[in-house]
Amino acid sequence: xxxxxxxxxxxxxxxxxxxxxxxxxxxxxxxxxxxxxxxxxxxxxxxxxxxxxxxxxxxxxxxxxxxxxxxxxxxxxxxxxxxxxxxxxxxxxxxxxxxxxxxxxxxxxxxxxxxxxxxxxxxxxxxxxxxxxxxxxxxxxxxxxxxxxxxxxxxxxxxxxxxxxxxxxxxxxxxxxxxxxxxxxxxxxxxxxxxxxxxxxxxxxxxxxxxxxxxxxxxxxxxxxxxxxxxxxxxxxxxxxxxxxxxxxxxxxxxxxxxxxxxxxxxxxxxxxxxxx
Amino acid sequence: xxxxxxxxxxxxxxxxxxxxxxxxxxxxxxxxxxxxxxxxxxxxxxxxxxxxxxxxxxxxxxxxxxxxxxxxxxxxxxxxxxxxxxxxxxxxxxxxxxxxxxxxxxxxxxxxxxxxxxxxxxxxxxxxxxxxxxxxxxxxxxxxxxxxxxxxxxxxxxxxxxxxxxxxxxxxxxxxxxxxxxxxxxxxxxxxxxxxxxxxxxxxxxxxxxxxxxxxxxxxxxxxxxxxxxxxxxxxxxxxxxx
Lengths: 277, 243
Fold this sequence. Notes:
The complex is a heterodimer. Helix content of chain A is 75%, strand content 0%. By secondary structure, chain A is mainly α. In chain A, α11 crosses α12 (250-272). The longest helix of chain A is centred in the N-terminal third of the chain and has 32 residues, at 11-42. Chain A starts with 10 loop residues before the first helix and ends in a 5-residue tail after the last helix. By secondary structure, chain B is α/β, with parallel strands linked by helices. The termini of chain B are far apart. The A-B interface holds A 24, 27-28, 30-32, 34-35, 38-39, 42-43, 107-110, 112-120, 276-277 and B 24, 27-30, 49, 52-53, 55, 57, 59-65, 67-69, 72, 75-77, 79-82, 85, 108, 124.
């Protein structure tokens, strides 16, 4: 190219260029999530079978534990206290095993196709997180309907619902990205299942999901304060219930959730490419 | 070793020779432990993003998603490759038509035959008009008719767009018939490279690529065995002297 036909790009077009690249990046993230929506449309059975677990928790566990004195703080009905915790739990369970789909895709060869595309690794990782959020939200819809039917004091104010949707989406992105990191490290389904089972327990029980932190011994309470699930449950308890309120403040909760998701996304973006080896 | 633009280049070699590994390195999936390579002028280590933008890759494994339809698979690729929204539908329709998949575009890929899946995978790799297309064992597990169709489409691509094709295969007759030049690889090393006619004439009058394959790989395997024995002997002697 000669100097005459290569004029210096004016700043306006540079900004436009950057905007175009940003749009491409967003398209790449959304492409992965859109494929997930299409898959769910082709085969939605899984969503309904997954809904069974939260029902069992609410009906069996909830009814019995409601008899225990001191389990729900401030005279809140235990079923009301439990419902947001079970919603967070069902989201967690879907997300924490999400990484196995990456291992499955690796074994098939679908993953290699993602990795040879010009999409940046981080766009693929964010796309996967959004896919998990799509699944989590369809799950949350079912839990909302169920809890309403069980007479839980649900807050139907659209702003509260929107806030809960945000918390579920980011919580799901957080744990699914964590799951993807594990998948990138272990690379086989067998190892992944073992680790997934082991992780689910402490994340679920060392949190405020099914009992208040005030019942815990000091060391466990300290652990629970480091657990992102605690902050997701805190948001949901504040926004899902009409009488709900937050212990830590919504701003703090969301800051923790977004920061943890960003950090995990950065790590996963570095590791995802190694899945191709 | 250099592959020219518009060339149909074959990679042959025994199982575990490193054909797939070579292709994975050239497609930036696997970082090389040493050495260097450039694809379309871009360095595979320093400019992996640029390399990916200009190549297509059909892996040995399944790369089309069986739980999506053919069209949805194409749409996913179009978005990942940054095809402008206004051009997506037209390019997808054209690529599907070129690969003879228009009729089944809305069927789930899980119901496709092996040959149809391969053609869809090639179609996915046409959307961004790659300069180089890497095909790793594209006809593995296909019946003869499906193999023939896949090769026809690949040759048509090369003839229409001057796409450089790098293909690995176990079927010597296919490679001999289709490729301009062939490289024989064994244990991660390039043994010989040339046109099929050149290679055959090296193996003797009336020889086939199969003969050459057996001659060269067989000899190399024996050499390795001798080296292995010598190495063991040296190591044991050293151990005795130092221990």
